[in-house]
Every structure is written in structure tokens, then in C-alpha cells.
UniProtKB/TrEMBL annotation:
Endpoints of the signal sequence: none
UniProt keyword annotation of Calcium present: no
MF GO annotations: FMN binding; riboflavin reductase (NADPH) activity
Domain Flavin reductase like: 18-165
Family to which this protein belongs: Belongs to the non-flavoprotein flavin reductase family.
SUPFAM superfamilies listed in its UniProt record: FMN-binding split barrel
UniProtKB keywords: Oxidoreductase
Alphabetized InterPro entries for the sequence: Flavin_Rdtase-like_dom, NADH-dep_flavin_reductase, Split_barrel_FMN-bd
Entry protein name: Flavin reductase domain-containing protein
Keyword Zinc-finger: no
Family matches, as Gene3D superfamilies: Electron Transport, Fmn-binding Protein, Chain A
Amino acid sequence: MKRAKSPNFDPAAFRAALGQFATGVTVITTRTDSGQLVGITASSFNSVSLNPPLVLWSLATKSASMPVFRANSHYVVNVLAASQIDLCRRFATVKGDRFAGVSHAAGDTGMPVLDGALAWFECHNRSRYDEGDHVIFVGEVERCGVREDAGDVAPLVFQAGGFHTLGPIE
């Protein structure tokens, strides 16, 4: 099998090109065995399979939350609405208790589901793949839900280094 050729671009060019792909924004949440809540912002979420129901997301290997997500059996992917930009920033930057004052409820697995999320996926931590400087997590969805008024609520989108939302084209 042939190997990939060395890149013919610098890391800044690669990052700029990746940044043109608009992605939804999620907060991935879990709970440690001792009950501590853990959550991180991620825009790397994607569907994998309908049967079985699988989704994926990735996390930097150097993330302080990596040991918890690698070891835990379950987590929740919370898809954020545009009105939840403060939650996005909180789970991306706040040190200490990111859940302080954040309204949430325990899902069927006891993992935190954020109030107001457009959609959520309660996942079994099915597989993990070490690739480059990230770990790809594949979750088997055990339960999911959609906010009742989701059709009337704008999603939070990240593209070209900034936050946006969507509107109909036609």
C-alpha cells in the first residue's frame, strides 16, 4: 500500500482551508464515577451510521478532559442553538466548574443534557481511534431528542473563525 505524500502546504494554510467548512457547535458532557460533571465545546461532530445509530466527534489528545472521556462508558452530545453562544464559550474557555449556574437534567444514563439544546444524543462510548493529535470518539446513540420548537430556532454555526447562524436560502 502506498503512503501519503508529504503535505505541500503549511499548517496555517491547512487551518484556513478547514475553517471554510461551516460546522454546527456542540457541547459534549459526561459525569465521572465520583459525580463530577465534565463538558467541552466541540465542532467536530458528525453522523456515521443510521443502523446501528452511530455518531462521531474528536478531542485533542492534550485536552485535560481526555482521560475522563476516554474512560467513561457514556456521554451526551448537545447541539447548541444560536442563543446558546455563551454556553459554547463557557465550555470552551472557563476553568474550574463549567457547570456552575448551567441548567441541565440527567439523561437516562445519568449524563447531563443541557437545557435548551436543539438536539441531544445520549451515547455509549463505543470506540476510540487515536489519529494524529486527536482521538476520534464513535458513540452508539441509545437515546436522542429534539427541542420542541427546533424548527423555529436558529442553530449555532462556526465558520472562518467566527460564530454565525443560518437562514433559509429561498
